[in-house]
What we know:
The protein is an alpha/beta fold. The two termini are 28 Å apart. A hairpin with a 5-residue loop joins β10 (204-209) and β11 (215-222). The protein is built from 9 helices and 13 strands. Strands 1-4-3-5-6-9-12-11-10 form a 9-stranded mixed sheet, with helices on both faces. A two-stranded antiparallel ribbon has the order 2-13.
Amino acid sequence: MTPDPGFGVYGKWEGGIGMGQFIMPVKGGLTPRGDFDLMVHFHGHEPIRKEWVQVMDGAVLVGIDLGIGSGAYEEAFQAPDAFPRLVEAVERAVAKKSGRKSARVRHLGLSSWSAGYGAVQHILMQSYAKERVDTVVLLDGLHCGYNGAAINGQPIFMFTDYAKRAAAGETLMFVSHSSIIPPGYASTTETADYLVHEVGGKLRDVRGAGPMGMTMITRYSKGNFHVRGFSGNDKMDHCAQIGEYRDVLKVHVKPRWNSPRGRAE
Length: 265
């Protein structure tokens, strides 16, 4: 329910890509060769769009909403050809709208809020993503089960691997968490701490203001792997995590990608 800043240099949401919808600059946003940058976001495409257009001015955004719970996202991307087909459909759509015979993705990112991490989980297991995905952003949405009293890290091994690559400077990964304690499975606080531990680090206690009235309580950075933790254990604290997206784009994604600028006319 945040104020709507409009679409900036972007056109309205459009379909025709098989799953979800996309926005791209009305004009520009491509290199002379026809390359463009693409972020595919899972869960909450409209509130995410409000944050996106206040920072980004060239990269294409795909938004996919498949309902409540991570199961629908996991199922949609279990097939190894599902995500490559989506990217190819976006390339065709961008080529058509831009009037270029050939448009190709240059930088490819995955972002998710809440249950959307289920899609990212399955995509990162596949060889296509290991070769192509440059950026991963998880906003309060990485869960797993327990093995006794400890986290069962096996189901989230792909996130651990990606965190290690980001810490080594190969890729970019950002993870945020609230302080919500879910019933019977690991919280986003616990999974974030697990990832930090796996890259050989330890969360640092801090105290600072975050977006939408949130209070930051922990953070960690190593290479291009970044974690921010926030207090708050209610539904609105979970929703407020979307407010982190704008700063992540501004501080990390936009400088890294340096996308060709688009314009409204």
